[in-house]
């Protein structure tokens, strides 16, 4: 009986397809509605997992990249600092010391220090052990900075040209107008004093040292004239000048040290006397050499001073 | 002096020098002198005072002697004020700081005049004002730190 029902249903379904349709519209649909959210959930879950794993990896990678970036930034900052230092030191090396003077670099380690630092000063890391003496000229690539005020074994205090107690005899480069350059304090312009009313000094002119005081070698640039005016019944022009260096940005300076006078070798001369005593006419000959030096043209003088220059450069 | 105190005074001195390089014209060691006079034996104060005297004189630009007067007057003011005020009173330190501010202005001018040097008065005046403010504040901080050192005798 059952077999009969089964075969009858089977045949009817083959012919009409009703059972297949019923099954499709119920079971398949139900399965679809069950499976679809699960599939969506699974997709989301797997997607979330993928993203989570990805983000974990990304975070780690990000952290690694961040640390690498930080290290690279540190290196970049260090490299930039080194490059800036190299540039500053190169410009220091570009300072050509005058003949008979040698140059030595020094680092600024502090500006005015303590309650007793009443003057415009700074401290450098070179002292008497390196041959730094009181009044040793201190220059920067731009020009004269000041002179050594006091020194210890490995440090020295430098008074800047901007201090009111700094007085330097200078001459203008073009018009050769002389005067005394006096500081007026930090952030203030310098004052060129004792310039006669008829002096042709003009704005923008560079003031260089005269070397008259015996502290600075002649010809070093100190300041640039920033203003010229007349004041009432004054007998002198009111000349203002700007220092060529920036005190706030001073990190390295150069010290100019006077070389010991070069010993000149006397030319060998056949002498009748074979004793080791100095010949009587040696002093006169030395005088002759000096006279000759004055009267000879500049080329000859330069040639004469070449060995001394080399000697200075070598130190 | 215990090891902790030795470390304290060493760190105080080094920090003071560093601070002085950041704030020119200001004495960051002077509060230490008063603190040592209050808390330490007189011999310790003398040694510290001598050390700081040499530091201040050495780094300064005026001729030697200015800081002797500076610390001498400060010590004298402390002992004088000790009769009138409680020595560890903050108000006393404020008054002492104000006196130091005035002293800075007067002393710098007198000593510069003696050396025939010119000063920028505005700057010296400003330094005096800052000194007057810095002194009691720094003393207060140092007093608290000092009394929280291990084996400290006093409670704050």
Q: Any idea what the shape of chain B is?
A: globular
Q: Which oligomerization state do the chains in this entry correspond to?
A: heterodimer
N- to C-terminal distance of chain B: 20 Å
Helix count of chain B equals 6
How many beta-strand elements of chain B? 0
Radius of gyration of chain B: 15 Å
Percentage of residues assigned to helices of chain A: 25-40%
* Class inferred from helices and paired strands of chain A: alpha+beta
Please count the helical segments of chain A.
Answer: 4
CATH homologous superfamily of the largest domain in chain A - what is it? Rod shape-determining protein MreC, domain 1
| Helicity range of chain B | over 70%
Please describe what this structure looks like.
- The complex is a heterodimer of chains A (315) and B (156).
- By secondary structure, chain A is an alpha+beta fold.
- In chain A, 39% of the residues lie in helices and 23% in strands.
- Chain A has four helices and twelve strands, in the order H-H-E-E-E-E-E-E-E-E-E-E-E-E-H-H.
- Chain A has helices at 2-16, 18-93, 282-295, 298-314, and strands spanning 101-111, 121-124, 137-139, 144-151, 156-160, 167-172, 178-182, 190-193, 206-209, 221-229, 238-243, 252-258.
- In chain A, a hairpin with a 4-residue loop joins strand 3 (137-139) and strand 4 (144-151).
- The longest helix of chain A is centred in the N-terminal third of the chain and has 76 residues, at 18-93.
- Chain B is mainly alpha-helical and 156 residues long.
- Chain B is built from six helices and no strands.
- Chain B is globular and about 50 Å long.
- The chains are: A alpha+beta (315), B mainly alpha (156).
- The interface between A and B is medium-sized, with 21 and 31 residues.
Task: List the topology elements.
The complex is a heterodimer of chains A (315) and B (156).
Chain A: H1 2-16, H2 18-93, E1 101-111, E2 121-124, E3 137-139, E4 144-151, E5 156-160, E6 167-172, E7 178-182, E8 190-193, E9 206-209, E10 221-229, E11 238-243, E12 252-258, H3 282-295, H4 298-314
Antiparallel strand pairs in A: 1-2, 1-12, 2-5, 3-4, 3-12, 4-5, 6-7, 6-9, 7-8, 8-11, 9-10, 10-11
Chain B: H1 3-22, H2 30-39, H3 42-59, H4 66-84, H5 90-114, H6 121-147
Helix pairs in contact in B: 2-4, 2-6, 3-4, 4-5, 5-6
